[in-house]
Amino acid sequence: MKVKYFATFRQKLNISEEDIDFPTIVETGYDALHWLCEKDSAYKSAFSESEVCLAIEHELKPLKTSIKNAKEIAFFPPITGG
Amino acid sequence: MTQQYNRDIFIRNTSIDGVFEQKQLIEKCYNAANGAVSSFTGLARGYNEKGEVEKIYIEQYEKMTQKSIETITENAMDRFSVDYCRIVHRYGYVEAGGIIVFVGSIATHRREAFQAVEFIMDHLKTTAPFWKKEMGSFGELWVDAKQADYQAKKKW
Question: Which residue in A10, A53, A58, A73 has the most chain B C-beta atoms within 10 A of its own C-beta, making it the best mutation to test that interface?
Fold first, then answer.
């Protein structure tokens, strides 16, 4: 699955996207976040900066939403456009 | 049947000319019922709590922005009786004082025209995937989301 990062998260992680095969125990956006933070402290540090928002297939979704079978997800801080 | 929405949405990395956008909006009034034109123009503020802001950088989630603004605009047009909406949003670098966003609408009466613009702005602020970074003598600072913006969306 393609995982994208934006704004502070992109800058802190120094990557804008990566391909990740999450293990089967990862079901929701929240599980994916937790798994990434366990895997590498860089994620923990980046995501601790602010609230984390999730998009699945380019649509905003709550973190508890299932990401199973998604082609693309994204993690980003709260939106500040307009 | 899919409803056809009379609207234009532009997401661009070149400067927005406010006078041109306003003119485009007024030129869309070719219906005798078009009695009200309303618009909002958002500019890059030249200061923040750290000092003077020289420019801002706007990041977007390209594959998501167009769709997200289309949904917001269609929701506004379903809700308010407006004949046309025009949304222009910047990404990339914007100098202080430059235009970040233009939202305009045409309706028969002013109330609906005002409300459509306000609805679109309130939703755009919290659901269209843009992030702003302010740059100046203080360095670089990502703008924090404002609680007031989330409250503003809830009132609809």
Answer: A58
| Per-residue pLDDT at B50 exceeds 60 | yes
Mean pLDDT of the B16-20 span: 98
DSSP state of A66: B
Mean pLDDT of chain B: 94
Answer for the pair B113, A61: CB distance below 8 angstroms, yes or no: no
Q: Is residue B151 less than 8 Å (CB to CB) from chain A?
A: no
* CB atoms inside a 10 Å sphere around CB A30: 16
Indicate which of B56, B65, B131 best probes the interface with A, i.e. most A CBs within 10 Å of its own CB.
Answer: B131
DSSP string, B5-20: P-EEEEEESS---HHH
Any CB–CB contact under 8 A between B26 and chain A?
A: no
Cβ contact, residue pair A58, B145, below 8 Å: no
pTM (predicted TM-score): 0.93
The residues, any chain, with a CB within 8 Å of residue B74's CB and separated by 6 or more, are B3, B5, B7
Q: From B110, B151, B100, B156, select the one nearest B130 (Cα to Cα).
A: B100
- Give residue B31's pLDDT: 87
CA gap A33, A12 in Å, rounded: 15
Q: At B128, is the secondary structure helix, strand, or coil? A: coil
Residue B2: pLDDT above 90?
no
